[in-house]
Write a structure and sequence with these properties.
With about 350 residues, this protein is of the alpha/beta class. About 40% of the residues lie in helices and about 10% in strands.
Length: about 350
């Protein structure tokens, strides 16, 4: 193991040794959580030398230093694991170093990836499922393990960002959205075929409200055209999940309502039942000093090329794409999200 990787391994070990179970845990016993997808779910799979998630100021809230999450702290995976009353599953890349933790499941998500190949140099969702397949073949997980497990699937827009980057516009988007959702359904059907008891896929958040897209309005207004395309994705996803349950004669496939949860929090003007309202919710805490830079950017002398808010807890978004830990906490506490979690575990 290279010296740099060794240093980060000990950081990582301290992070996972210090994790606690969620206060809302259901005490799910021997259940395991398997996570697939992108940066909204990734807890450290991306390579240290490449990913901003391993650079300051990422991780300043939890664990207090960069540790691979695309936020100042915890992300969606952590809150879902907490709801289940279990420890956050470790990233796939650390499975050998932290072999004792694979009993809780594994996180196969890589920031920047999609259902299909994207510009990111990391495995797409089909390949991530292949990693689980290999672990089953190697008897790391048994049939019983899979029958009492949950798969969480995060597909939060990288395919669409890559499509725009490659084509320069949203022309032909409806057809491409249909292909993305169709492949998502193929992937979920494959997970079920491997023996995973329940598969929960997140609906697409309102991408038009990401700071990347609201910057042109000084973070005051969401992009309605992009949100209309998000609505199409979610309509098709709802239909696909219903079809999967019909085809398998089961109640194995569910949608976690990220869209409704994000929308609720972003439009909250006053604190609600202990949950905060956020100061200018469309404006991120950490952002580059110009369009050429991003959060964590530094120049050749190591000088910062980004600005950082004084209190990440006051912001919903951490950077131009990802929520803060407090943002994820608010999302996971909304009635929309809580109701979809209850439905998942009541069936």
């Amino acid at each position: 193991m290279a010296a740099q990787n060794l240093v980060f391994f000990f950081i990582f070990l301290s992070v996972f040794s210090g994790e606690q179970r969620g206060v809302e845990g259901l005490g799910m016993g021997e259940k395991k959580l398997f996570v697939f997808g992108d940066s909204y779910a990734d807890t450290g799979n991306n390579r240290i030398a490449l990913a901003s998630s391993w650079k300051f100021p990422y991780g300043i809230t939890f664990p207090g230093k960069p540790a691979g999450r695309f936020s100042d702290g915890r992300v969606s995976t952590d809150f879902i694991a907490g709801y289940m009353g279990m420890k956050t599953p470790i990233p796939y890349r650390w499975r050998k170093q932290l072999a004792g933790r694979v009993k809780y499941g594994l996180n196969f998500a890589y920031g920047g990836t999609g259902v299909f190949d994207t510009a990111a140099p990391y495995p797409n969702m089909t390949t991530q499922i292949g990693f689980l397949q290999q672990l089953i073949n190697d008897s790391v997980y048994t049939k019983r393990d899979l029958e009492t497990s949950l798969a969480f699937v995060s597909a939060s827009g990288n395919d669409y960002a890559n499509y725009i980057a490659m084509n320069g516009s949203t022309a032909g988007f409806p057809t491409f959205i249909s292909s993305v959702v169709s492949q998502l359904a193929v992937n979920m059907r494959r997970m079920h075929g491997l023996g995973v008891e329940k598969i929960a896929v997140g609906s697409l958040p309102p991408l038009g409200c990401l700071p990347l897209n609201t910057a042109r309005s000084s973070f005051r207004q969401c992009d309605r055209a992009q949100n209309a395309l998000v609505d199409l994705h979610n309509q098709l996803l709802l239909r696909a999940v219903a079809n999967l349950n019909n085809q398998t004669n089961s109640a194995s496939f569910f949608i976690l309502d990220f869209h409704g949860a994000f929308w609720t929090v972003l439009n909250r003007t006053h604190p609600h039942q202990g949950n905060p309202s956020f100061e200018n919710p469309l404006q991120p805490c950490c952002m580059g000093v110009s369009a050429a830079f991003s959060c964590a950017s530094v120049d050749e002398n190591g000088d910062k090329k980004y600005t950082l808010c004084s209190n990440p807890k006051s912001k919903f978004f951490w950077d131009t794409l990802h929520p803060t830990q407090e943002g994820w906490r608010a999302v996971s506490s909304t009635p929309a999200f809580q109701n979809s979690l209850r439905q998942l575990f009541q069936n």
